Amino acid sequence: MVQYLLLLKKGNSAIFDNNFTYKGVQAPRHVRVCIVYSTPMRLEITRKTDLAIRALIVLDQQAQKLKASMLAGHISTTSGFLSQVMTPLVARGWVRSDPGPTGGYTLRVQTSAISVMDVIEAVEGKMHETRCVLFERVCNADDPCAMHGPWGRARADMIRELRMTTLNQLQLPVV
Predict the structure, then answer these.
(1) Which residue intervals of the chain are DSSP H helices?
(2) What is the model's pTM?
(3) Cβ atoms within 10 Å of 152's Cβ, excluding its own
(4) How much of the chain, in percent, has pLDDT values that exceed 90?
(5) Interatomic CA distance for residues 56 and 15, integer angstroms
């Protein structure tokens, strides 16, 4: 259910539903309406995805097996967190993981064959295309929010760009 925060003239507030009723009382016409968003909109990738991209680029640049501690140092993380970062990359077959004292990580594919979107989906899972950007609900053409059209077009452009950008096109920033 969509809820609205109605700010009354005296500064009091109450949560009203779609019909502008609260506890059975209709809201007066003179109130100001602000939509309450359940979570802030974020356009960023997680640290785990960032580290996965960095690890793949470093492995490509090194062109040899790297011990976990060395790779962790190159991408500024701990060896413990590195194993969590590398698990989806190994599962996708992009990286080989050899355990033991002589083990390490080796890149198995060219970075030109891996898109940024491939890595995001490997680490974070498939993106939810029906999730509303404004409210905690499904958003579609039958029940659109105010941002449904523009957000859908912007999202499609962003996903297309991330799918077209391969890892060999990226440069690691100096940390």
Answers:
(1) 47-62, 68-74, 79-91, 116-124, 148-164
(2) 0.70
(3) 16
(4) 43
(5) 48
